[in-house]
Amino acid sequence: MAISFLTQELAIDLGTANTVIYQNGQIVLDEPSIVALDNNTGKCIAIGQKAKLMHERINPGIRTVRPLRDGVIADFNAAEMMIRGFIKQSSRKNHSLFTPNLKMVVGIPSGSTEVEIRAVRDSSEHAGGRDVFLIYEPMAAALGIGLDIEAPRGNMVVDIGGGTTEIAVISLGGLVQQNSIRTAGDVFTSDIQYYLRQQHNIKVGEITAEKIKLGVGAVLSELEDEPEPFIVRGPNLMTAHPIEAAITYQEIAHCLDKSIAKIETSILHVLENTPPELYSDIVENGIYLSGGGALLRGLAKRFTDKVNIPFHVSEDPLHAVGRGTCEALKHTDHYSFLMR
């Protein structure tokens, strides 16, 4: 009994934009995946929300790093500091005299190469993980949505995260067809920045573009429930004088159109290669949307019209992968698709 008392179990959704950690079925940490480092010493100054407040507002002595790009670890050192810091934050709640053994399940993109998978495993182990299991994100999303992924039925999930969009058909606990594309939340943000530069002559940073996406992000030019225009202020590119513009959701729908069309093409490509029996299950059940991108207004309707299969936005899509990772953590012996 004493041994299990010293084992701490964590489910980690290591995302490009946000990292979510679950413990005992509860969210113990939900922070932006970002680290602030001292340029001279390389030491970590802040992680998560504190580092995000510094992002794009720093002096030459400090730099902010997003350790994950396109769903995979781009800066190994920063990723390790971030995971270690987040684990420390989430285990402060457990005041134990001993360092507990860490058992972790971490979500990774389904298109990860061997090298990328190894980077996640190494970072997790260096951050103190004793038992590290990995799960593909679409599999975790399906679990989090509450689908029976081990049944002999076809389920299809589209998880639009910060760095990647994961599209997968799942049956009998395996990925039958999958595609992982790097068109997701980060690309939408830079689309908005580019559009404002071109159309309004305003220069905005990543954080403002992110706020616009949350405030008036949409993919249809006609919505029933219309959000108020978003007032954005910034320097005029020509004169450097401050200007402001009211950005409507129609403009955002127009500027995201190309990126959303890429996701549609990938969805159709995956469906094209799906075995007919599973295809008919998918038509019957519909396709499930998860991840932060699922919150874009009108997305399910646009996809439904394009693909002719009903799309459903899962409840609390932002935490679907985290919930699924947590579910997998409870039954690590039972699920054959977990990788060690």
Question: Top keywords for this entry?
Answer:
single chain; 340 residues; alpha/beta; 11 helices; flat
In words, what does this structure look like?
The protein is α/β, with parallel strands linked by helices. The protein is built from eleven helices and 17 strands. β12 (165-171) and β13 form a beta hairpin. The longest helix is centred in the last third of the chain and has 24 residues, at 249-272. It is flat and about 65 Å long. The chain starts with a helix and ends in a 10-residue tail after the last helix.
Short synopsis of the structure:
This protein has 340 residues and is α/β, with parallel strands linked by helices. It is built from 11 helices and 17 strands.
The fraction of residues assigned to DSSP E strands is: 25-35%
Q: Describe the global form.
A: flat
Name the helix and strand elements from N-terminus to C-terminus, one letter apiece: HEEEEEHEEEHEHEHEEEHHEEHHEHEH
- The percent of residues in helical segments reads 25-40%
Q: State the end-to-end distance.
A: 25 Å
Low-confidence stretches: none
Strand order of the largest sheet: 3-2-1-9-10
- Total beta strand runs: 17
Q: Give the C-alpha Rg.
A: 21 Å
Kindly report the average pLDDT value. 89
Helices and strands: which structural class?
Answer: alpha/beta
Number of helices: 11
What kind of sheet is the major sheet?
5 strands, mixed
